[in-house]
Amino acid sequence: MAGNSFGTIFKVTTFGESHGEALGGIIDGCPAGLEVDLSLVQYDLDRRKPGQSAIVTQRKEPDEVKFLSGIFEGKTTGTSIGFIIENTNQKSHDYSHIKDSYRPSHADFTYDQKYGFRDYRGGGRSSARETASRVVAGAIAKQLLKNIKINAFVSSVGSLHLAKNHEELDLAVAETNAVRCPDSEMALKMENYIKDIRKQGDTIGGVVSCVIKNVPVGLGEPVFDKLHAELGKAMLSINAVKGFEYGSGFKGTEMKGSEHNDKFNTDGTTRTNYSGGIQGGISNGMDIYFRVAFKPVATLIQSYETIDKEGNIVKMQGKGRHDPCVVPRAVPIVEAMAALVLADNFLLNKVSKI
Amino acid sequence: MAGNSFGTIFKVTTFGESHGEALGGIIDGCPAGLEVDLSLVQYDLDRRKPGQSAIVTQRKEPDEVKFLSGIFEGKTTGTSIGFIIENTNQKSHDYSHIKDSYRPSHADFTYDQKYGFRDYRGGGRSSARETASRVVAGAIAKQLLKNIKINAFVSSVGSLHLAKNHEELDLAVAETNAVRCPDSEMALKMENYIKDIRKQGDTIGGVVSCVIKNVPVGLGEPVFDKLHAELGKAMLSINAVKGFEYGSGFKGTEMKGSEHNDKFNTDGTTRTNYSGGIQGGISNGMDIYFRVAFKPVATLIQSYETIDKEGNIVKMQGKGRHDPCVVPRAVPIVEAMAALVLADNFLLNKVSKI
Amino acid sequence: MAGNSFGTIFKVTTFGESHGEALGGIIDGCPAGLEVDLSLVQYDLDRRKPGQSAIVTQRKEPDEVKFLSGIFEGKTTGTSIGFIIENTNQKSHDYSHIKDSYRPSHADFTYDQKYGFRDYRGGGRSSARETASRVVAGAIAKQLLKNIKINAFVSSVGSLHLAKNHEELDLAVAETNAVRCPDSEMALKMENYIKDIRKQGDTIGGVVSCVIKNVPVGLGEPVFDKLHAELGKAMLSINAVKGFEYGSGFKGTEMKGSEHNDKFNTDGTTRTNYSGGIQGGISNGMDIYFRVAFKPVATLIQSYETIDKEGNIVKMQGKGRHDPCVVPRAVPIVEAMAALVLADNFLLNKVSKI
Amino acid sequence: MAGNSFGTIFKVTTFGESHGEALGGIIDGCPAGLEVDLSLVQYDLDRRKPGQSAIVTQRKEPDEVKFLSGIFEGKTTGTSIGFIIENTNQKSHDYSHIKDSYRPSHADFTYDQKYGFRDYRGGGRSSARETASRVVAGAIAKQLLKNIKINAFVSSVGSLHLAKNHEELDLAVAETNAVRCPDSEMALKMENYIKDIRKQGDTIGGVVSCVIKNVPVGLGEPVFDKLHAELGKAMLSINAVKGFEYGSGFKGTEMKGSEHNDKFNTDGTTRTNYSGGIQGGISNGMDIYFRVAFKPVATLIQSYETIDKEGNIVKMQGKGRHDPCVVPRAVPIVEAMAALVLADNFLLNKVSKI
C-alpha cells in the first residue's frame, strides 16, 4: 500500500536506506521446487554494483546478498524468501551539508514535505541504492522464467544513439564493455564521452533498451494490468526514469495504420513487429522490446546555490563518488524489473482458463 | 487480480464487452460526503462518445450512465458506487467475418490463445468501448480532487506536432475544436489531415498531452508506486497506447545534469520544471505534465489478407464506422485515468504521517 | 480497500443498498471456459430470498439476477463478470421513523458516525440484502469447484441443538424443510419454536454448520491466509455472525493432545478428524467442517425506547416484515462464502509449485 | 498473495523458518513521525519467548530484534521498516526422525503435499516460531494506537474456566503470574494443572480472551472487511487456533433479540454490550472483546505410531522441549494481531469521509 511492494502473485517487498544497517526484501509467491543458483544472483548484483569500471561511481560496496529463508537444500520451499544486503560502507560520513538543505532535482524537498522529516544520509530511501534489492528478486524471477531471455543494453548516452535495432545486433557484446552497449565502436565513443562529462563534474542522461525473447503467448491481464502497462510501471519506478515506450513507441504515432499493422504469417507469428510482442495487453509470442529514458544524474561535482529548510539561499558543493551517467549500471535493474513483471504474469496466466 | 481493477484506496473495477448487455463498474473507497454533480459525469462521457464530430466514428451510442448505489441525497455515502452504461447499439450485427479470423494488430489472436475462445462481437472486452467506464469513474475522481485541474489535449496527429509547450497555450481552446488541440490553426490542419486519412480508408496515430495544475506537494508512494509510475501504468493501460513520458521525457536523456536540474526559488517552487512536477516519485507542487503516444487504429476500411484460426490465409474487408484517429476521443480518457491516479494518491497521502 | 471486495484471484466486488436501484457485483478472475448453468445461480438465490416459507420474512422480492458481461455462448470468457439484481420492492416506503433515530444493535449509529450520514432506507448498505450478491458470486464459484461439495444446514435455533454430528446425518434432508435442518424431527421443533418467537414479536439466534467434502489436499496459503482463517473471515463478514469454529472448535480446548491428535491411516487419511480437514492452514483431504454463530435479529416487532441523532430519548415501534430467525435463509449465504474461499484457494494452489 | 502479508495500509510481511538463519519482516505503511520505544518491542518479544517460566518450553532463544530501516533518530520515516530476529539456537539438531515421517496433527503432511517437499527442521515455516515476527510488528502497531489499550489474558486451560467476565477482573493481574490469568487463585490452579499435564508428556488446550478499550467510533470497513471479520481472520491465522467469537459469541445464539439488543444511553454508549463493541462491522466506542480457542499442542513427549512418506507405519518418540499448553505464550501474539488489525483500520478510517 505504501509503495514498497511489487507484483501480485510473485510479489517482492523491499526495505532499506542508502546508509542504514542493511537493505533487503521478501519474495512471496515464488513457487516451490525451483532450483536456485545463488551465483547467478550475485552475478547480477555485481553487474549493478559501484566501482566495477572507470565510468561508474568509485564507491566501494561489496553488495553481498544473504538469503535467510525460503530456500532449502538448494530449492525454493514455497514459503517467503527473505534476504539482506548489509551496508558495509555506511559509517563515518559527514552529512551536515545536506541535512538541512535541499539539493535541486533530488527527493530531499519532497520527502521532507511528505513525511515531515527524512533520513538525509545519502538520500535515505530515495537513493538508487534501493535497487540492489530489486536485482536480487529479479535474479530469482529470471530463474523461474527459464527459457525466457531478457537482455537490456545501453542504446543512447546523451546524443550518441545506437542506430541499429536489436535484430541487427549481437546483444552479448553489451556485457563485454563498460558502457553495456552491444556495438563496440559506439561503446567506445560513449565511454569516452562519459569520461569527458565526468571531468566537467557534470552528468548525462541516456536510454536503456530491453529485448525479451521466447515469451510464451498469453501473458498479460487486461484491461488495467496489460503486460506493457506493468512493464511501464516497473521501469518508471526505477530512479531517474522519465519515459517508457514499447514496440513502435512514440515514432509509431507518426505512422498510418496500413504501415503499422503487423501482418500475420500462417503460424501466427507476424512479419513485422511494430506491436512489440504485445497485442491488447497480452504477449503474442514475438519479441517484446522497449526503451527506457534516464535523466542525467542530479548530483554534480560542482558548486551551486540552493535553498535550506527555511527557504534561505545556501551554497553547496557536490562531492563524493557519483555516477556521471547512470545507464551502464541501470542495465541489470531494467532486466530485474522486467523479470519481476514476466514472472508474475507467467504465474497469473496459469489460472486464466480451466 | 485478473486485471479489471485500478487503484488501491480509491479503486475502480470495471466490466463489459463492446456488444454485451451493458458496461459498468464499481468505485470503492470514495470518501463519504462528496457532493456529486452527475451532469459533469455525463459531460465527460459525451466528450468520449462516438458520433460527436465529423472526424470520429459515426456509430450511435448514447452512453448514458446510471448510478445504482453509493450516492444518496446527492452525496457519496462511503459505500461502493455501482454504475452501468447500457449498450443500446449492440444488436443485429454480423460478425461472421471476424468470428474465426484474426485481424492484424488487434487482440483477436492473443485473446483466443490466452482464454481458449473469445467474445468476437466488436472486439469484446478488448474494445476501447471499455474506457467509457473509466471516464465515469474518473469524473467522480475529478470531483474529489476539487482544485486540482487536469487538462489533456491533442499535441500531435501523425507528423503534425504542436510546437508550443503547455505554458504558452490557452488549454481551454482545445475544447472548442473537434480535434481537441489548443492551437486553433494547428487544429484545423489536423482536422483536414484526419479527414484526408479517412478518405483513404486509413488511420493515423497521435499524441495526447496532459497538464495537471494545483497539485499539492506530497502525492506519490515510493519506491514502486512512484506517482509517475502510476500515471505511466494508467496511461499505458489505455487501448492503443505505445509510450509515456513526463517532464523532460526522452529529450531529457540528451541533457546534462547542469542543464536539467531545476533550481529552487526560495518558496520551494523551481525556476524550470524538467522534473515534470515530481521528484523521487512524489509531487513537488509544480505542474505535472506528460505525453501519451497512441498508435494508429488497427481497423482499416480496406481489404487485406490475414489468417483464420486454422492458419489459412483469408481475405477480409474492413467495414463499419471506425475512428480514423483515436486521439480526439482519447483526451477525456487520459484525463479520467490521471484523475483516478491523483484521487488514489490524494487519499493515500492522508495516512503518510501521524 | 474500502471493504467491498473479497478474494485475491477469484475476486468478487459488490455494491448495492437495500432500497436503492439495484444490487450487483463483479466477479474478476474466474478462469475462462467454465460452462455456467444460470439456473443453479437462480436456485441459490431462491433459497436465500424472502417469502419462501412461513418462518421467514414475508417481503416480496423476486431477486432475479441478470448477467451483463463475462459469459458468452454459455461459458465464462476470462473477463470480468458483471451482474445486477434489481430492487423491485424499494419504493414508497416511509422511513421517517428511522431517519433520525438509531435502532439498538443495528448499524445506524456506527454508519452515521463513520460516514457522517447514511442511506437510512431499510438499513442501506448494512442490510443483509447485500448478501444476495454474494450468493450469485458463490453460485459461480460452486460451479468452478465441480466435485467439491459444500453443504450448510441449521444445527441450532436458540437452545434447540442438533445432537448428531454431520457424519450421522443425511444432509440432503435439510433442503426438505423450511428450517433447513437435516433432522426432520428436530426441524419441526425448530419451526414451531420460530413461529412462537414470531408471535411474540421477538427473534432468536442460531447456528449454521457447514461440511465441505471432496476437498483436494493442498488448499490454503500460510501463514496469514490459512484456509480456516479465510473461511473464518468469510463467515464473520456475514451479517449477524458472532463466532466461527472449525474442527474441534471451542470444545477442542478442553482436550488433551493425546486425545485430539488425528492418527494417520496408511493412505494419509486420518482415523479421527478433530483437525476439521485442515492442518497448518492447508487442507488435508478430510472433510472440512465448521460452525457459524448468528445472533438474534435486532429488528423486533415491539415498541421500545431509543435515542435520536441529538441524543434525545424517542419511542420507536418495530414494524414491517422481518425474519424472526435468520439461520434458514443464512444457509445459502454460508455456502456461497465457503465457495468463494475454496475457489480462490483452488486457483492460488495452482501456482504453489513449479 | 501467497499468504505472508497481513493488512492493507499498515501492512506486515514476514519470513523465516523455525531453524533457518533468521526470522523477520517488513512493516509497510506505518505513518512517518511515530516515536518508537524499542524497549516496548523487546518487552513483548520477551513475553512470547521460550524459557520464561516453568510451564513453557525450556528452549533457549534470546529473540532479540534488530531494526534495519525505516526508523531514524527515534522516529519512523514513513518508509518500510525491515527487521530480523536471528535464530541462535538452530544448529546441530537431529531431524532424521521427522524428515521422512508425518507427525499427527502437524503440518508435515500438508506442506509436503502442497509444496512437493518441506523444510523439516523444527516444522520449518509452519512452526509457531514464526509468530515472533508478528509480535514485533504488533508492538509497533500498539505504539501507533496510543490510547487504545489491548489486553489479552488466559481465560481457560482445559476445563478450568475463569468464571468472571472482563469487567469484574483486574486485567493487570494477568502479567503477575506465569499462566497470564487475571485471577490469581485460578492462575495457580491452571499452573498446577499444566505441570501435571507436562509430567504425563501430554498437552492441553485453552482459551485466550482479549479486551480492547478506548476504541474510537468508526473503525471497520464493511461489508467484507468488517472489523470483527478482520479480527477473526487475524486470530485464526495464529498457530493452533480453532475458533473465534466476539461479544455474545456462540452463547448469543441462544438469546432472544429482546434480551440481546444493547439499549442506548443518551450519549451513544450502550447499557449492555452483547455486541462486543462492534455494530455492522464498525466499532461503536464500547469495549471490543473476543475469545480465541487454542487446541492442545500436537507434539507429545510420548511414543506413538504414525506413517512415513511412503505410507509405512513407523514408530516415533516425541522429544525435545515443547510447550505443554500454548496459551500463556499466545497472549502477546493475540495482542499483536489485534494491534495490527486496529492500526490498519485506524488508518483506513482516516479516508472514510471528506
UniProtKB/TrEMBL annotation, chains A, B, C, D:
The keyword Amino-acid biosynthesis applies. GO terms for cellular component: cytosol. Pathway: Metabolic intermediate biosynthesis; chorismate biosynthesis; chorismate from D-erythrose 4-phosphate and phosphoenolpyruvate: step 7/7. It catalyses: 5-O-(1-carboxyvinyl)-3-phosphoshikimate = chorismate + phosphate. Its EC number is 4.2.3.5. Reduced FMN (FMNH(2)). It comes from the Bacteria. NADP(+) binds at R48. One of its GO terms (biological process) is aromatic amino acid family biosynthetic process. FMN binds at R125, S126, S127, N239, A240, G280, K295, P296, V297, A298, T299, R321. Keywords: Amino-acid biosynthesis, Aromatic amino acid biosynthesis, FAD, Flavoprotein, FMN, Lyase, NADP. GO terms for molecular function: chorismate synthase activity; FMN binding. Its cofactor is FMNH2. Belongs to the chorismate synthase family. Homotetramer. PANTHER family: CHORISMATE SYNTHASE. This reaction introduces a second double bond into the aromatic ring system. This is Chorismate synthase.
